[in-house]
Every structure is written in structure tokens, then in C-alpha cells.
Amino acid sequence: RFILMQPWEFGRLPASWMEPLLGNVDEVWAYTSSVKQCYVDSGIDPDLVSIVPLGVDPERFRPDAVPFAYDTDKRFKFLFVGGTLYRKGIDLLLRAYYEAFDPAEDVCLVIKDMGANSFYRDQNARRRIEQLQAAPECADIIYRADNLRGTEIPGLYTAADALVHPYRGEGFGLPVAEAMACGLPVIVTA
């Protein structure tokens, strides 16, 4: 049996996926009911789509995880973890942060980009983030696109003060669940 577990969070599936999917896939696993609905709305038989949610390992993601050492002396740290994509609302976050804070304030935005050097290479916000980092009127921004060890990821959350995810489309929101497991408050869209 061929099972597809490909998240899709933003409207109908790409048309180029439909023929291979309909002709080759025996079953689709979706993280959430909203992801399942994207497949069904695109023409996939609902009986072929099962919900198989993601999970968070509570042995790793917990409030006492060793905090990551951010390179900042700013006291309050907002954190964004994920692909810096339009769908994830990174443009909204950068604009709101730029408008709300100035360099004299004791605040920092930490952006841990995912996939910036691979699958999101040509669609991330790295250039815009670098422009803001260089702007003297912008509050501190730390940008990381490197790969971290799995043992370091929980510390991203425990070293921060709030996770911010103003997404336009999200199939599950694993960083939100990981942050909450670490006891970190989250700020998300409705």
C-alpha cells in the first residue's frame, strides 16, 4: 500500500498533484481535520483520508529543558520557529515588530527559520529579515537558518518569553504545540 502524508494547509491541492495522487495513492494521512478537508475539497474520496495527528514528546519538550544561549542581552525574547513564508505570516510579524518596538527597548525577535537552505530556499523572507537587521531604527532581530540538533530545539522555547505565529494557513502548528509543552505562552491568529 502507498500512503501519502503530505501536509497542505492553504486551500485546494495543486492541480499537478491530482493525477499522481488519484492514480497511485491508496490512503492519505492528514494531521488535522482542516488538512483532511483540503484533500476532500480537492476531490479526494473522504474514505481515503484518515486523520493521524502529530505529537510532541513530553520527555524532550518540557518547561525545564536547558535554555538555548541566544546571542543577545535583551531581556524579553519573542520567538518564531518555522519556514519564513507568506503562508506562515512572517511578513505580518516583521511589520508588527518593526512598528511596535524601537532599538532602545529591551526586546528581541528570534527567528529560527526552517528549510531556508533547502525546500524553502527560494521563497523565504531571509532578505527582508536581513534588511530589518541592518536598519538602525529596528529593534533587535536574531535570525538563524542553520540546522540544530534535536536536543537543542526545546531550549529555543525555554529561552524565550513568547512564541509568535501569525499564520494565514497552518495544517497543525507543531511549534505551537512544542512551545506549549515547554510552558511558553503563544500568540497566534484566530
Radius of gyration: 18 Å
Mean pLDDT level: 90
Helix content: 25-40%
Unreliable segments (pLDDT under 50, ≥5 consecutive)? none
Arrangement of strands in the largest sheet? 6-5-4-7-8
Order of helices and strands: EHEHEEHEHEHEHE
Pairing-aware structural class of the strands and helices?
Answer: alpha/beta
Number of helices: 6
Strand content bin? 15-25%
Count of beta strands: 8
Q: Sheet bearing the most strands, described?
A: 5 strands, parallel
Distance between the termini: 37 Å
Q: How would you describe the shape?
A: globular
Tags for this model:
single chain; 190 residues; alpha/beta; 5-stranded parallel beta sheet; 3-stranded parallel beta sheet; 6 helices
How would you sum up this structure, described in words?
This protein has a five-stranded parallel sheet with strand order 6-5-4-7-8, with helices on both faces. Strands 1-2-3 form a three-stranded parallel sheet, with helices on one face. Strand 2, helix 2 and strand 3 form a beta-alpha-beta unit. The model has no long low-confidence stretch (mean pLDDT 90). The chain is globular, with a radius of gyration of 18 Å. It is built from six helices and eight strands; from the N terminus they run E-H-E-H-E-E-H-E-H-E-H-E-H-E. The chain has 190 residues and is an alpha/beta fold.
Describe the structure concisely.
The protein is α/β, with parallel strands linked by helices and about 190 residues long. It has 6 helices and 8 strands; from the N terminus they run E-H-E-H-E-E-H-E-H-E-H-E-H-E.
